[in-house]
Design brief:
347 residues, alpha/beta, 10-stranded mixed β-sheet, two-stranded parallel ribbon, 11 helices, globular
């Protein structure tokens, strides 16, 4: 079986090259080709011998995603990418431009098995996990496409990152390593719907990333209606895991809260949410739900969203309303992939 060379760290790459009869210093050269120059083929590695390139082609595979479609927002410059994987699966990634730099939201799985009712990513279930190389290459291909550096990475696209724990962890180390893009861990955010055991594991990894919890409801009963994972890990368990993460890392938790019109956007819901998060050093990110045609959820009126925010702020909570990006394109996770797949089945 071919070695996934882009998913190897420097030490693993050195061991591979020594096993192939090469000098260890070759690892630095090849690592730079992969993660600094971000080549898509071994032929581009022009400062290593033709013989070694041939050996690498025979023994390794080099992850390089195929750009299938790009949607560009005329409103704010957001770009949504549909990438093809080597096995024929597809994933989505999003580039968002801010004053502080370019931010990329990447997928962690092809499909998702979490079943959150407001999300298009999960409608066809989980196909497979992405490798560290496939996680990285979403960023590399976008950088190549726009000719600019990415400064912030959010793992909040298709899939549940903590359901792909080992590959996610390796990806974070590769992304933040000095020999690669060297993006600060403080500029990396990982989202989870609340897989408690892996949240606790992540707290012990001594990382400086931001953990974002998809909360979306102020009570166990409502959360269960939206998110099947809540049947396994109740809301109090999840909140305690968030507190533990803050205690171990000192990194403030972000709570993502999708506002669904007429379901979780009342003043009573705001009261319950404020009490649930009492005493925490945290940030609440309000997200007016992005409607998908397979569900009947609707966005609240803008006045309702503002009243919800004001109520939380009266309790002293730190709150923002997420700025909508890419509203004129397939903005919600999974929409572009699903539309493309449906189009291929039903021309």
């Amino acid at each position: 079986m071919a070695v996934d060379i882009k998913s190897l760290n420097r030490e693993e790459l050195e061991k591979l090259l020594v096993s192939l009869g090469e000098k260890p210093f070759r690892a630095k050269q090849i690592y730079s080709w992969l993660h600094v120059r971000q080549v898509t083929s071994f032929e581009e590695m022009t400062d290593i011998s033709t013989k070694l390139r041939e050996i690498l082609k025979e023994t390794c595979e080099l992850t390089a995603l195929t750009k299938i479609e790009v949607q560009c927002s005329k409103l704010d410059g957001t770009r949504k990418y549909l990438f093809g994987l080597a096995d024929g699966n597809m994933i989505e990634s999003v580039l968002m431009r801010y004053k502080h730099g370019n931010s990329v939201c990447i997928s962690s799985q092809a499909g998702c098995r979490m079943g959150c009712r407001f999300c298009a990513s999960t409608l066809d279930g989980l196909v497979r996990n992405l490798t560290p190389g496939e996680l990285l290459d979403q960023i590399y291909r976008i950088q190549q496409d726009i000719g600019e550096r990415v400064s912030h990475v959010v793992v909040m696209g298709t899939g549940e990152p903590l359901d792909n724990y080992d590959n996610l962890l390796k990806f974070i180390h590769l992304l933040s390593s000095e020999g690669g893009l060297h993006i600060s861990q403080r500029n990396i955010t990982v989202s989870t719907c609340g897989i408690v055991p892996n949240m606790l594991r992540l707290a012990e990894e001594k990382l400086q990333i931001t953990l974002a919890l998809s909360l979306h409801a102020p009570s166990q009963e409502k959360r269960q209606e939206l998110m099947p994972v809540a049947r396994k890990y109740d809301i109090q368990q999840v909140i305690e895991a968030c507190k533990h993460y803050f205690e171990r890392t000192g990194r403030r938790i972000t709570y993502e809260y999708s506002l669904v019109g007429g379901f979780n956007d009342s003043q009573e819901d705001a009261d319950l949410l404020a009490r649930l998060l009492k005493g925490q050093n945290c940030h609440i990110n309000l997200i007016p739900v992005n409607p998908i045609k397979e569900r009947e959820f609707v966005q609240p009126e803008s006045g309702v969203v503002l009243e919800f925010k004001n109520k939380l702020e009266k309790y002293g909570r730190n709150v923002t309303i997420r700025r909508e990006m890419g509203r004129d394109i397939d903005g919600a996770c999974g929409q572009l992939r699903k539309r493309y797949r449906k189009g291929r089945r039903e021309p």
